[in-house]
DNA sequence: GTCTATAGTGCGATAGAC
DNA sequence: GTCTATCGCACTATAGAC
């Protein structure tokens, strides 16, 4: 690869090395949210960014690769929030910081995050995805109190599922971001016993 | 139609009048949960119940009609639970009864309910569906305390979204039904301030 | 990196016999 | 109510020029 292609990718963990790939993933996530993963074709993605299908295939060999890259792109945002919470020196403030970050992320990306996570194909993929399980483990380590019972892990999983599942649910579609964010934070803190 | 075909459909509100239609909807819901709505073809539905595509088309003129009927079939289960809670004479016990019923339903049908509700096409459909909004209104009337503030409706929507969104989330896929049910009930009661 | 052109497949949907 | 047969179309994916 030529130097110019990787000039703007200083961080090693980046998932989208080239601008062309990043444009495809951005368009794909937007279309997945609007029509579902199965309801989105490569033609639609190509049209969205103004190129032909063949140009898309030059970046990703199959549609599955695009779905996978899109899912990992969303997962990377969650990883960044965990990174920040893990550097928090106060063990008492770290859980609230993490929960706040997750709620902000979920509300900010409410149009895509739930569709991605709820899609059966992606759910199956995550079930066998190593990085995904690693993320869950790190989440639990920050959130769960040391003297918590064995049910704490279960509770954590359910809380996170509730947050990301709630943000684009039909029941809350006509709710503005601020109200949704505030109530989700209230729900999360109540459930965890936090009093931030 | 012959009398034998409608002999086992005494309730007027039934959505699936014929056995043939009921079989199609049951197969469709199962396949939607496994492959998504967009990822399920009429051929797959026909194969699942052992007939040809043309036989399916005889019952429903388009694929959209099948998706719509499937969504209404799931909605009908929620309506039945609200019916039961509305007949509860004690206004104090009714909310807990309703929440318990909703959690039971969500866990019992965790493979389908979240996929159906999260699908963008179905979400758009529900947004303009009169019965859906009617169901939401009845839910709020049972759940919300009379002296509750204006945020109560928002909280109710989020709680319900959290429950149905959580049940088939990747975070909880490896959780058995009993643990999931118990923790969801705990979450719901805490959030509503119930102490059943 | 993007294009045109095309192969091969499966899709939703229809017509008409039984 | 189910069948066979088929239409026209959109899909994923590939080949090869620029």
Short description:
Chain A has helices spanning 19-35, 42-49, 53-59, 63-86, 93-108, 113-118, 120-127, 130-143, 152-166, 177-192. Chain A is mainly α.
Detailed description of the structure:
- The structure is a homodimer of 196-residue chains.
- Chain A has 196 residues and is mostly helical.
- At the A-B interface, α1, α6, α7, α9 and α10 of A face α2, α7, α8, α10 and α11 of B.
How many beta-strand elements of chain A? 0
Distance N to C terminus of chain A: 49 Å
**SSE string of chain A, helices as H and strands as E:** HHHHHHHHHH
Shape estimate of chain A: elongated
In the CATH scheme, the class of chain A would be Mainly Alpha
Major sheet attributes of chain A: none
Strand and helix layout:
The structure is a homodimer of 196-residue chains.
Chain A: H1 19-35, H2 42-49, H3 53-59, H4 63-86, H5 93-108, H6 113-118, H7 120-127, H8 130-143, H9 152-166, H10 177-192
Helix pairs in contact in A: 1-2, 1-4, 4-5, 4-8, 5-10, 9-10
Chain A binds a DNA duplex (18 and 18 nucleotides) through residues 20, 41-43, 51-55, 57-59, 61-63.
Q: Which keywords apply here?
A:
disordered N terminus; 196 residues; Tetracycline Repressor, domain 2; homodimer; mainly alpha; DNA-binding
């Amino acid at each position: 690869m030529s130097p110019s292609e990787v000039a703007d990718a200083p961080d090693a963990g980046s998932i989208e090395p080239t601008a062309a790939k990043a444009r495809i993933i951005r368009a794909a996530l937007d279309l997945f949210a609007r029509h579902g993963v199965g309801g989105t074709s490569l033609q639609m993605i190509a049209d969205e960014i103004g190129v032909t299908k063949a140009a898309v295939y030059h970046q990703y060999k199959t549609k599955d690769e695009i779905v996978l890259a899109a899912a990992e792109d969303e997962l990377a945002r969650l990883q960044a929030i965990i990174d920040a919470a893990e550097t928090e020196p106060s063990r008492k403030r770290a859980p609230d910081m993490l929960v706040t970050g997750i709620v902000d992320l979920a509300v900010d990306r409410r149009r895509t995050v739930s569709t991605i996570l709820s899609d059966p194909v992606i759910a199956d993929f995550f079930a066998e995805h190593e990085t995904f399980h690693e993320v869950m483990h790190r989440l639990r380590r920050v959130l769960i109190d040391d003297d918590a019972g064995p049910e704490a892990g279960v509770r954590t999983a359910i809380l996170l599922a509730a947050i990301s599942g709630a943000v684009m649910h039909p029941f809350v579609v006509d709710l503005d971001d601020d109200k949704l964010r505030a109530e989700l934070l209230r729900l999360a803190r109540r459930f965890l016993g936090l009093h931030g």
